[in-house]
Amino acid sequence: MAITQLTATEIAGAVASGRLSASTVIADALARIGERNPALNAFTDVTAERAISRAETVDAAIASKKPVGPLAGVPFAVKNLFDIQGLPTRAGSKINRELAPATRDAVLIERLEAAGAILVGALNMGEYAYDFTGENVHDGPSRNPHDLTRMTGGSSGGSGGAVAGDLVPLSLGSDTNGSIRVPASFCGVFGLKPTYGRLPRTGSFPFVFSLDHLGPLARSPRDLALCYDAMQGFDAGDGACVERPAEPVTQQLSKGLSGLRVGVAGGYFRKGLSSEGAEAVARVAKALGPHRELELPEVARARAAAYVISTTEGGSLHLDRLRKRPQDFDPATRDRLIAGAMVPAPLVDKAQKFRRWYRARMLELFQSVDAIIAPATPCVAPKLGEQTLTLDGVAMPLRANVGVYTQPISFIGLPVVAVPVPLSPLPIGVQIIAAPWREDVVLRLAQHLAETGIAAAPRPPSR
């Protein structure tokens, strides 16, 4: 077994105990990337020299009996919208790769390395994070490790593919409308979208300021918890980051289902759902014990309002680039951003007012349940190049509609874990959603599902 097939928890334990050196781990990871990335196309940059140097530092600290942190020697990689010192922050675009190299790492990279983890590179993504497929026209598509003819999902496609393909045990992505949860579902890994404002976005390229989240993908809930705990904390560089005490969750995972009330989203979340998605939700709901079915309020309107806010904020952010270099965009991204820039202001105001109303109604639901279960994607990973998605018998543009179940949740910043259900031949994900600041709840439930075998990151075929 390759070292990178171990979980982050297992690697950190082996390095801290001296059973493995960080240098050995990183050598294995770099070899694995060199061997498998040409097929998966998950990485756009590999920071080999930096990783080797960092591993030597970790090994020296262990030899000197100095503390090395809970993620000692764990290789990780980040979506290429994170600043990495010495590299331009390309954000999946052609235009950004002409930027000057970043002079400092993103705050979350700094925090993970302070916890002993080792950055090995930057990952492929949809252009400017406006994508659900993982098909980048500039760098080529990320390919699903379970079937190289299929999508990883996006926009954190390389982040999902790198973890599912055993290139690294841990990655970071971003989630505006579902860009962590969709790749987690298609690639069969665990993904955490924390509460909006929980983790600082300082040193990352934005898409929609009022909706952007950063978070980890991994092959176990415990790895998500370790990574999340290492990244917590206020940073003034992000105006949305909330100044509140860190609330570590790793030690709470053993609490399991104790005292937690679970609801299952019905109505909107049943429409258009594939048989695989329905089976996955049913398995998860059964494993979590007694539950009630819930009708979430005005979900379709929430998704429409989320789309209005996303496209208008994104269009505004890129307006100068759209005017000066329209030919250098992916046409599908460009056209949606241009459309967003032309949305009338009264419609945006209406969407924001509805957002406040919807958040209040959703918080009322959490007075009677602690977590809500919902599908993550309507289907398993589609074939690369597919253009349409059939929902309730109606063919719709695939790229815009894969996030049909994730957008209404991101819209109000709730914490969510996407858990993979290992169906055959392809996995599919289920969302576990909680009230703001209750990452402990979603991770406890994910851990229970992992321990019972209902949720698991399946191994891709060996090639």
What does this structure look like?
The chain is an alpha/beta fold and 463 residues long. The chain has 15 helices and 15 strands. The protein has an eleven-stranded mixed sheet, with helices on both faces. The protein has a two-stranded antiparallel sheet with strand order 4-5. The chain has a two-stranded antiparallel ribbon with strand order 12-13. Helix 5 (157-164) runs parallel beside helix 6 (181-187) and helix 9 (299-317) packs across helix 11. The radius of gyration is 20 Å and the shape is globular.
Output the CATH topology: Amidase signature (AS) enzymes
Q: Which percent range describes the beta-strand content?
A: 5-15%
- SS content category: alpha/beta
Number of separate strands: 15
Write the H/E string, N to C. HHEHEHEEEHEHEEHEHEHHHHEEEHHEEH
Termini separation comes to: 14 Å
Q: C-alpha Rg, in Å? A: 20 Å
Count the DSSP helices.
Answer: 15
**Average pLDDT taken over every residue:** 97
- The second-level CATH architecture is Alpha-Beta Complex
Percentage of residues in helical conformation: 25-40%
Low-confidence stretches: none
Q: How many structural domains are formed by the residues?
A: 1
The CATH class is Alpha Beta
Main β-sheet, in a few words? 11 strands, mixed
Strand line-up in the sheet with most strands: 1-3-2-6-8-7-14-15-11-9-10
List keywords for this structure.
Amidase signature (AS) enzymes; globular; eleven-stranded mixed sheet; alpha/beta; 463 residues; 37% helix; 15 helices
